[in-house]
């Protein structure tokens, strides 16, 4: 919901399991715990060793699989997917997993989190060879590459196909008899494996393991291909060109606070970012408040370090659903608010530090600063627990185009004026790296910082399109 | 949602407006901000000066009034109601406002928050005089009393009827030409009035005023009857037997943190309760966490006073809707969780203070203590920011029967063992009164404490029924 | 559906059963067979001897009771109701049966087919005595009268109440332990009883008996009150002022062709009307066609007597549902048609006799004549198997007001010109009586002919309102 | 609906238009008039000259495009499709038109009525070349063939692809700038073109032209490819091996009575079949009745020729929708009926001729004979207006397998005994050909009679699958 406010949208979440009699049910709960990664659609494909069965639809996990429909999905293994909410485009066709049935060579189901940067080129090439596409999704590209690889052995076909796609991807690929799991050579998206009795599970975030009662085993490594079947699990490499660059926004904004990424707890990382921010940009104030939900941890950290009391200065309405009626322009001007309310009893007459995790277009920040002033705040100091986002993301996060990014076009002082704050400070890139505190060396220190620095860990092609530009 | 977990359910919320061209829209937003007070059904009645129009239905405010249906409600004034979720009973018939059409004496719409303690008796009496009832709601009783009062003047008829009902009530009564607002002589339920340009608004909580852009004017007084029409607003008394006893659970649990009740901000009151609790029951620990959402403020206060860091140790899943599929017994035992997750990265290896606002049946507390232990907490100290609930509520809060209340049947030490905590402490009644800090003298110090002390501010009749016992 | 086209709407249909373990299911199928009598809403109330349970909703029987909801209705007896589709007004509140719960004197469920002519007066009187009304339905009036009768014995209370209402009614009245069935002293609405093993059934039309596998026993008599309970069935009289006047439109238009009314099969009656019509208004033509569905029987009779071949010259689209999208004005002018199509292959170059059962406002007739001409008919001769409707109905059929009735304001020749026919003839009143052929003597010969003749079998009050005038 | 009873299901219906500003609306009404050809799903693709837009879904045309959704489909041209109801399989993926988007060579939308007999083989071949399939529909095969043809010119690519598929097909193929229309060399499925001002329309049945106000131009010829674009219409041949064999069941059962196929009106053809049947199998009886809706015309013809009165002896319930609740076994045995009722008032004590259009499995016939006997018929003589169906259909009609066809396994006398009729007669093949009366010479006399004679007009491959056998 708040995602809509901010203009930051995650692409997707994936979950898979092999070797459990209630595979579809487990996947349902797993997807449910990943619902924050995508609300537009959801799907599950199961295998009973013999046949793949697919169910998917537009809407929340609850809506797609409610009313007993889940019972139609039997089998010992499953993969599932939640898809993000985008304004235009999309629709049912793009809901994943995609299922490709073949009359003689077995079926293939694919679920993908991420974004390929050379999808357009590969697609052109495939089409000139006679391939036809029914979706605008990158995943379909991989399916064609697998089928056309010429390899009879499925594993080799997949490895071969993976070498031809560039960008960010966590792939789950399931046939009647195998589950394959692949992560791109930069490890741009989180992906972990766990165990649950005799079953293996795989998920975009570790919170899914806690929810289904599985035990975290380890993170999938960049460039790794895992093959899971009734004989067990096998790890192979499909690329030697490894350079870890985990998406920083996963720590800052997207992932659930109870997930661990690469061994670092997300809530703790955010709290540390808040502390670093407090060190970097001191301010004298009466109360600290965070923009719910994603900035709460950073705000707590900020308050803890500065000793300024942490308060619930902003309240999010939990009942703003998709059918919510927008107020008319007249009512909006009269002050009808939804989604977020400032707590007058807390901020009236106070100097407020408002901690937020990021600024994308600036419109939300301006609105919140305004809310706080209307509720009586005498000063509003905005502190952002990440550096300015000045570059678009090509790896699966819908951060808007270059033109819309306020930090791509304005100085910090200009942004302060635009959003109407008394002061404004962003966290530094160094502060970000140290706050997260992962032990990586090398070119990117283990983090993708492209949206802040413009240094992309992969090649970017002239026709690489942003997710929301696809139709 | 959590309400369901806990077994504590608010009865309702009401909102009214007189003198605004978009009365129904404003009421919609007002009800939306009161949605936490009732999720089973919602309704709005408008008047255009000539005719009352009603729309209501089962479901959330969004669902009942979505798809353009709101536009069918025109008029300059409106009253609305949200109704709480109860297991059995209920259904469409009991969704409010109730509308009574009369062919010769004008129509009457009623919305009610609270519970009457002599409804059964009055109903018996009315039925023996030939009245027939279509609902099981107390509100219908008041309508009959008004119509049978013999007074031709509506205001006198209402005042007369009000003297015959006992218990807790905030009533909105609307005819074609007038809006009447009444609060019971103990002021058991919150009710405030505000202004919005030339219009008057009235709401169960002040958060509704902030959301619609209205200015808070004052709280409705116990025993007060307000008459609002095109000429303005008039205040009268219908009872001289005033003894303020505001429901304590409104501060502790029900109201939104951004509401002010009787001049006291709810979040601030809760934070103070957390501080008092910390003073009363010290503990040495590593982290403080609150049970979301209602206990967050108290946990912050507890952390602030003790200096123990406040952390997000428990996460609530925002997407648990009504259609959520419950895991099978087998899966539940395997550890499939929903709604609430413990954050392993925060609690593992830590001594945890878990602050909660209340314990009703104890089952939820036991489950949460268990969650924390499974996530690696070495000690779990439960601190409750209210006294033990040992008596049922007859005034509109569905606290379960005497048999189900754990504190009615067990000592604190027994409860500690049942929920499996390393230590357990409740706030004292004095701590509660001081924490809230309202300036009342007199028998009840301005607060209803009946659920803690058993001293009810009104007479209780032998056949007074709990809300969930009605069929 | 066609009802909408024509502007003729039946009020309702009722079904009841006593003494069957699957009472609700049987009632569901019974109501389903009466669906043509009302499509706006449906409801069922069951009793298990101890408690009445109600389920109702807007929509078709299928929609209201689908998805397993029917299983919630247990008990050995039930009454049900289907309600007609009216433009404005209505809504959930008026869906029947109405259920009145009483805390000390037992509950009461009522289902009503018909219309009371003195409802407004009785309501006024009741309101002046303090009664309040939640619906605009006449049924609620009867409930008040029963409760206020002063009689402790239910049967006496009902008889007393029935003497106070005037007009057309078939009432089903159910308490926890009894089913009462009453028909007005003129027997204006059809109502029959049957047996089904040990159970008794009652229905608006005998087609319901065939559908549920019950055996027709006899028609309920005008002024009769039947009391059915676990001891059996008992017949009493509540009025001595009997004068049978069965609604003629039931034969002509409303009832299902497979129903028998007063011993006369509806299809056969219609076919006879078609034959009489052929005798009264001969014409030389090539084909006979009927307007589906209600005029098919008359058309067959017309063809049979004249020897002119009967053909399917008009086809009704079976899939025109409530969500059907109306064509824009531009498309309508271009000729986009729905609901009804003329069969070019049948009427092209032919002189066509178009048999219809009635003309209300004339707009539909004009449209159908036009359809036939566009499809190539060289002549269109309209034959109506009933007399001109020149007077409104106050007994439960929504025939529009006096102003809208074309035959109230125009001669036959004028109507012919308005609808654009080459010739037009109506059946005579004598032809109608003979065609139906019921063996009654007396003032009305057993038939209500008021809409044709203006002679109403009951008193009509100055403030008697037409059904669609209620709000 | 009755289709379900009988076990005969049409595959689909198609509609297309080029050159009208309200193309989607027109297509909606066109599809609506073809709804009897398929009720499982519906879809429309429009082009605005630049981009193809698709909307489709499961359900009736009304349901898929209701609630204003149609407005999202803009453009000057459109193709649409209705899909038949099959028990298993199917689902959203197979709803047509299928849309294939290409990033560099333009998009392609396809709608198909019919069934290919060599789909399995072609699919195998394509898959071995790397093609992947997302649906089980034959249409996807054609899309692959078009894309892989190697021809740059779209028209040539389509012609080339058409030569590779065998079986029955009416194809609509739309790109951004062209609408192509193709009919198989045997012309097994009906397909006609019409004009509507400057626009061209194409439809499976001519009834669609009458509904949208278009003028019938001519039938599409077997082996013809029409290319329609902004310059006009062009006709080409893609096969020289023409041998007309129109599906006989279109005349007998499927098409709407108001459609003309190959110049012959369907109602008239059916009436003639009824007359021929009367000549071939005389019988002495009191009434003739037809099984609604498809056998009404034949029954009228039978009655007309014999002079036995035609009556409505069987009534179909119009409100049996998809959500209808099936009676339990116990209730079914007690006689609860739905869908079809016998009219006791018509058949009691009579010798009844029951005319039906066909017998597939015999179960429906047995049930209807039984219905008539229960309603009092003294004799039931069944007359079938087509020859015995003894062979499965591979061309798009779901007639069940060989094992299920009663006439494939039993003599006429055996069938008579099974269905419990007093006498039974089928129409002869010669009677069928003469009754329809089309002026064709040659091998098949213009009609496909394969289901009666076993002589299929195309080759049948060992792995040709029946429609309902696809998964």
From TrEMBL, chains A, B, C, D:
Q: What NCBIfam families does UniProt report for this protein, alphabetically?
A: purF
- Gene3D superfamilies linked: 3.40.50.2020, Glutamine Phosphoribosylpyrophosphate, subunit 1, domain 1
Involved pathway(s) = Purine metabolism; IMP biosynthesis via de novo pathway; N(1)-(5-phospho-D-ribosyl)glycinamide from 5-phospho-alpha-D-ribose 1-diphosphate: step 1/2
- The active site of this protein is located at 12 (nucleophile)
User: Could you tell me the EC number(s) of this protein?
Assistant: 2.4.2.14
- What does this gene product do? Catalyzes the formation of phosphoribosylamine from phosphoribosylpyrophosphate (PRPP) and glutamine.
The family classification in the record reads: In the C-terminal section; belongs to the purine/pyrimidine phosphoribosyltransferase family.
Comment on bound cofactor: Binds 1 [4Fe-4S] cluster per subunit. Binds 1 Mg(2+) ion per subunit.
Instruction: List the cofactors.
Output: [4Fe-4S] cluster; Mg(2+)
* Species of origin: Metabacillus sediminilitoris
Note the InterPro entries from the entry.
GATase_2_dom (IPR017932), Ntn_hydrolases_N (IPR029055), PRTase-like (IPR029057), PRTase_dom (IPR000836), PurF (IPR005854), PurF_N (IPR035584)
PROSITE patterns assigned:
GATASE_TYPE_2
- Name of the protein in question: Amidophosphoribosyltransferase
Q: Gene for this protein? A: purF
